[in-house]
Each structure stands twice: as C-alpha cells, then as structure tokens.
Amino acid sequence: MEAFEEEAFSGSEKKPKCWRRYVDDTFIIWPHGTSSLTVFFDYLNTLHSNIKFTMETEKDGVLPFSDVLVKRTNNNKLAHGVYRKKTHTDRYLNAASHHHPQQKRSLIKTLDHRAETICDDKSRPEELQQIKEALTKNGIDRVCRIQRTKVEQQLTTYAYLPYVSGVTDKLKKILSKKNIGVRFRTVKKIQQVLPSNKDPVPRILQLSEGVYELKYTCGKSYIGQTGRSIQCRIKEHQPHTRLGNTDKSAIAEHVHINENHKIDYENVRVLNKTTRIIRESLEIMKNK
C-alpha cells in the first residue's frame, strides 16, 4: 500500500492534509471542499484494478474510525472518544458466570485501558461512567483495584486445568511451590457434551477433491471427479437421479435407461484425491 499511496499523492494536484491508514481503513482530512474530494476519490479508484475504496464522510461533525469516534469542534479542532455501534448492548462477562476471577478483572482492565488510550480529557469521565454502568448491568457492582503483581519466576512447566471455584485455586498454590505454572480454561458447555442427533459424515466424504466410484446394482460403476467435497457432489447426483435429469448426470441417464438399476450412494469409494482429471480417465479405462 505504501507504493500505492506514493503514486496517489504524486499524481494528484490536491492532497489531503492528513492521511492515516490502519489495515484497510484510512482516515483523511480534506481541506479543499466537497467537490474536489469526490474528484480525488474517483481518482483513487482508477489507480489499481484490485484496489477500490468506499467513502464515508462526517455527519454533524462526527465520524467513526475503527474504535474511535472523532468529533470536529466549533473551533475546528478534533475531539475523540470510544465508538460503539448502535447495536451495542453493553453485554460482557457476567459476574455470576463460572469463570476465574482473573478473567473478570481482565475485562475491567481492558475497558479501562481503552478509555485511557482512546478518550481525550473531556470525554474520558463520561466513558468511565459508561463503563461503570455497563459493569453494573453485568453484575459487577464493586470497583476492583488492579494491582501490579510481582514478576513471576521463570516457569518451565505448565498445567492447564478446568476452572472449578474453590478447588482449582488450591491446586494452583500447591503446584506453584513445585515451580509449575497453572493456566485455567473453561469447562465444556452442555451443548458440547451432549451427542449430536445428526448422523456423522464419513471422513472420506469430507475430502475437498478427488476421484470417486459409485456402484450400480447391475455391477457396473460410475466414476467421477470433483474439486469440491465429495459429499457435496454426491448430494447433487441424488436429485438429478430422482427427477430424471439425464442431461445433468450420467448416473441419472443410466438409471433412466435401465429402470431396474439403482445406485448405491451409501458405499462411496474414493479412488484418488490428486490429479483428479487424469486419474478419472485412468480409472474409467480400468473399469471398461
């Protein structure tokens, strides 16, 4: 993008006063008027066939950029605070959830750090009040002081344990005496533990591409190839066979000509998963 930007600036008579890019979003200040901004925007979209821009301009002196809400004041200076989408619900990790207390403290630390780094002096108190109200909605009604801890000694071994309140904390103290660090993880949810009511897809059908074989009840075979999952290709054959679309499936054509013949979709055999077009031809020749 650096080369693109250099080309864009060198070829434009009017240039932005400010150009700040973050990943694929760019914030600019354009002091030359709306009409020339449109000309500059159209010019950018002509420079490279694979690089196209969309544009959003300020509304009522306000423009969101990533997590930052930029405001233009009456004296044409910039103010900035935290940006939240209209769909934001202030829903965070609930105090009653079964997570290690450190994870809940980390939430507070993250929100506080964002307020400190993004907000200016004027908007920071309002943002901190917003954070306090959001945490209260999530059951966190006490201010947690985050203290700087001592530098941990170098640990060479770690144990990953499911967090169980009142149990895992004691294990951590015991293991730390043996120079073993502990990292907590949440246990599986009920949805993850209960078995699925769907029949599992055989792993062989999940292959992304390959040459496959289907058997007819008459003993003959159909050999085909696909660049997608074999399961997806098989599912395409089935409705063609049922509806008699002989122009879209050789299987449907065979079954249509031979009414008593059926295809065994349950026992698919994968012959090869590389160089599928050549392998398909070889396998067809072998089965003639």
TrEMBL record:
Pfam families: HTH_animal. It comes from the Eukaryota. InterPro entries: HTH_animal (IPR058912). Residues 91-139 form the Helix-turn-helix domain. This is Helix-turn-helix domain-containing protein. The lineage of its organism: Eukaryota, Metazoa, Ecdysozoa, Arthropoda, Hexapoda.
